[in-house]
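To whoever is on call:

I kicked off a structure prediction for a single chain this morning and the downstream step that reads the tokens threw a length-mismatch warning. I double-checked the sequence; it's 462 residues and nothing unusual in it as far as I can see. Pasting both halves so you can look.
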Amino acid sequence: MNSDNKTEQNVLEMLKSDDPVLKTETLYNLSFEEVDNNIVKIVIQLISDEDKSVRNAASNFLIQNSNPLIPASVIDFISSPDISIRNLAGEILLRKGVESLDAICKRLPEIKDDDDIKFLVDILGLIGDKCPEDLIIDILTVNQNENVIVACIEALGNIFSEKGVEKIITFYDKADVLKPVVIEAAGKIRTLKSLKFITEKFKSDDDLLKFTMIESMGEIGDEDTFYFLLSQVESLNGALIWPLLESIYKLKVKYDLDVPFDDRIKKCVLDTIINSEPRYQIVAAHLVTVFDDPEILYACLSIYGLDPELNEVLYDKFMENKKVILSRIHTVIDNCNKYLTAVLDLLQNILLSESEEINSLSRIEKQRLTESLSKSLTNPDEVVRISAAELLFKIDPETALLFIDSMINDENFWNRMRLLDMFIDLDNPIIMEALDKLAMDPEEMVSEKAKEMALRKQYLTN
């Protein structure tokens, strides 16, 4: 027996061992390249091993190895009563991608169990290759099981089967449960027939169905769809406004069309900014860039900090409208939302870019702003507290000095250190008192720095 045969025999013995640790180590040590068919056959059987580590190691090997026996042999395990083994077989077939297609397509016509048919059709859809579209259409034509029908329609949508559109849309009126599935699949397949079908069915009373239709029209619509969606602005409300605005924006960008920024669109933008989720708020923010409406700018200010992309879109618009933002920002600070740090950073940037802008505020507006900042000095977030302190000293040092005790008693050591930096250019008896108190700080770095600053200020005074 030559050395290669001995090695193969040793591997086979280890894989047949009763020791799960040995089997797992052996599997991970196997090469993913050239491995004998006998070893591959044994590894395939190990995906049903009692030990989870062995099953995972076997799965890892089978996914990486290119032996053509693997997909056809793994399919046998999709009928396992153990759902973990069934799912593992599915994962192997899916991860092997197009290598699995031939084996699945040959086996599917032979399978009688609807659950197994659905399972394999789902995998074909997730692999995403178009080659099995005829087989999926054939199954959709003859199979009466609702779960299989859903799987076939979804798979044809996922592989963008233009050939399947005709068959897919015939199922729309067969059952209510199929309607959203049909609309979503047709919406993925970019054909004029799909678009015409979805537009014709838009009169549905089902809001969930309309939601899916609107999203689909945003993906596959044309210029006529853009104007059709605009015509729906007044008649739709609630959560339907959000995908409507998103689809209008997508088609605007795609076809370089102009959105009429009238009261109808303003209402949509406001509703989306205030009530929707980040995905739709970002779209609304893009549309805001052509509005200079104070009400819309304020609504955007209330969600600033929610998302980095959203911040990027809104920042330039805010900087173009500093006076409007400065006059309303105190309300957002008062609301103390979880994005307050971003709002305070925005205020810092406004003051850095144009420090005199603060003087454009009326006495009442400035007072409201300083009151809001002073309330933030006790915020649970240490970043908010020190940002508020810095802003108070920049905007109104005299007001800031009224709250000096709150600042020097900040529980965060680094905040007290940064506070000392703010004192450097200030000459006031209250500052000297604060330095005397900080000279007694339990943190040595704070106390030493306070003592040094106090001596320097005394020297400069004398």
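Update from on-call: the warning came from a stale cache, not from the record. Cleared it. Sanity check on the structure: The two ends are 101 Å apart (CA to CA).
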